[in-house]
Specification:
The protein has two domains: 261 residues, 3-Layer(aba) Sandwich (Aminopeptidase); 69 residues, Thrombin, subunit H. Helix content is 30%, strand content 27%. The strands form four sheets. Strands 1-2-11-3-12-15-13-14 form an eight-stranded mixed beta sheet, sandwiched between helices. Strands 4-5-8-7-6-9 form a six-stranded antiparallel beta barrel.
Length: 358
Amino acid sequence: MASRSTSEKWLVELASLPTASGVEDQVIGWVRSWAGRRSDLELVSDSGGNLLITQKGKKRRPYVLAVAHMDHPAFVVTDVAGNEASFEFRGGVRADYFPGAHIGFMTGRAKGGRVATYSAETRTGTIQVSGSAPSAGDIARWRFAPRRPTAGRVQAPAFDDLAGCAAAMSALDRARGNADLRHFGVLLTRAEEVGFIGALHAAKSGSIPSGARLLSIEASRASADAPIGAGPVIRVGDAATVFDHGLTNLISRAAGRSGIGHQRKLMAGGSCEATAFGAYGYRTTGLCLPLGNYHNMGNLDDVERGTGDARAMLEEIALSDFHGLVDLLLLAASALDEASDLPKRLDALYEEARHLLT
């Protein structure tokens, strides 16, 4: 069973790997190696490359699956001519962050360069390469300033959503050996940053076990209303939809009884895979980590106001939020089969005060 220090090691390792929508190979390799060292787990890849990890043995309950995505916004080289590389940027980042930005190649033999041109409309552009040329398919990301140690927090290039992957796998590692949690598993998806493509494939192809309840994990932009360090978020919905209220309420009720620090918020700054799964009829709710420097956009609040310097920065989360998320996932795996006591509590209120209506 993973200790907290081991979970933190997985967190930092995963969040430092090169990844982009459609080019999640190194993350997939890490996950396959992790699962392969655990003989009581089974890993299956669907036709779109999504990874489903489940526990072997008889299940007493329908599946509860923690879902996270394996990609992060990044540059993907599409063509090379001399010392100029054309790229697609796969993910959502404001155009302010591109002009003249220093980037580093994370795969292949090329080292770095600067963004020469960028079109926000097509999310394509060119990089003036320094030194060896890259190859088509190579991944690049921003050059970041050195990490700034902060008590209780950790920084890395890609917590969205590699922190979700690490939390899901940590929870699964802790669930192993507990027959009451054998129905808990993990689904890791691809190409979320370009429109939930992996999640849509999983939903449409039938690769999600019948009757599974889904816990969609994200690292979502922190705000004054949902700050870093105030606990993981039980997510009511996103910018597009509200999630399954029955599942959300069961987790919230169990979290309140357990004493696990948490927040309950809408998190309407964007949309997530829970919306995609819900649209295809899957019972889904969301959990998330408040995230600083969302999508590596440093000073984002000031940039949106037109007063800040658009500078790429490492993403940041609180370790207490991360460990709290692992605890919430395990709690949810048990709580989702409890009967709601809300009707009983409402009946009691009615019986106590119904005389006021006569």
